[in-house]
């Protein structure tokens, strides 16, 4: 089973509380989502492989380290995942970005894929799939299916708020995928929204409601 980690760093928890507030406006919401994504990028990249490198400093040779091995792809699930991309890129600026378009049918809660555009060498990359919300898990499961179908194997899923139902479903469907979240909330309501959650992440990010 992959790792499941709730990131309880005080800065992440504080910022998450700010965007849960229903009075937090679009501009602030967007900025803080990116800030949290940057903080999460620090932790999710912790096990990136390092290699030895000799660096000539002004005073001599430093036997130092640099990141080696797999290159990174950040893959947001549209729309709301887009809100986390710039924040992740702040720490991993050389990453390529792929996009997977997915929407949930409001009645059935079933996910529907409508767009996939990935770096051509996706199979060789460490992939961070980002989406603020893990609710039923349908969207993330289908997005990761789409990635694996195209050769991806090294995948981590990064969200802001998760429901227990979604974590369980994602772990069952993709036991090889590590899951990182800023919060594990109580439950889903009968409309498939996370309670207490933060509402509709896409609408709050893009001001569409
Ligand atoms: C939201 C969210 C996730 C999905 C989570 O997207 O951004 O992708 O719901 O729900 P699930 O775990 O039950 O699948 P939505 O379908 O509202 O699309 P949007 O981002 O375009 O608003
Ligand atoms: N998608 C959202 O944006 N919010 C939820 O609470 C659940 C799914």
Structure description:
By secondary structure, the chain is an alpha/beta fold. It has a single domain (2-49, 67-204), classed as Rossmann fold (3-Layer(aba) Sandwich), CATH 3.40.50. The chain has helices at 10-20, 26-44, 82-91, 138-149, 164-173, 201-206, and strands at residues 4-6, 50-57, 60-67, 71-78, 96-97, 99-104, 111-117, 125-130, 133-134, 154-162, 178-184, 187-188, 194-195. Strands 1, 4, 5, 6, 7, 8, 9, 10 and 11 form a 9-stranded mixed beta sheet that branches. Helix 1 runs antiparallel to helix 2 (26-44). The longest helix is centred in the N-terminal third of the chain and has 19 residues, at 26-44. It is globular and about 65 Å long. It starts with a strand and ends with a helix. The relative contact order is 0.18. The model has no long low-confidence stretch (mean pLDDT 97). The site of uracil has 10 residues, from helix 6.
């Amino acid at each position: 089973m992959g790792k499941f980690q709730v990131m309880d760093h005080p800065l992440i928890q504080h910022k998450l509380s700010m965007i849960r507030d229903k009075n937090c406006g679009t501009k602030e919401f967007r900025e803080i989502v990116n800030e949290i994504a940057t903080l999460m990028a620090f932790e999710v990249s912790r096990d990136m492989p390092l290699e030895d490198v000799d660096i000539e400093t002004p005073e001599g040779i430093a036997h130092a380290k640099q990141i080696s091995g797999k290159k990174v792809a950040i893959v947001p699930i549209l729309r709301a995942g887009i809100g986390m991309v710039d924040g992740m890129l702040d720490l991993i600026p050389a990453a390529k970005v792929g996009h997977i378009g997915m929407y949930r049918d409001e009645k059935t809660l079933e996910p529907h894929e409508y767009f996939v555009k990935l770096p051509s060498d996706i199979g060789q990359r460490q992939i961070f799939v980002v989406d603020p919300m893990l609710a039923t898990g349908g969207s993330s499961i289908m997005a990761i299916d789409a990635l694996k179908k195209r050769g991806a194997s090294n995948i981590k899923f990064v969200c802001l708020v998760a429901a227990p139902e979604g974590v369980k479903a994602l772990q069952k469907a993709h036991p090889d995928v590590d899951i990182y979240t800023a919060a594990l909330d109580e439950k889903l309501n009968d409309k498939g929204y996370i309670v207490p959650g933060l509402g509709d992440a896409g609408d709050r990010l893009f001001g569409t409601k």
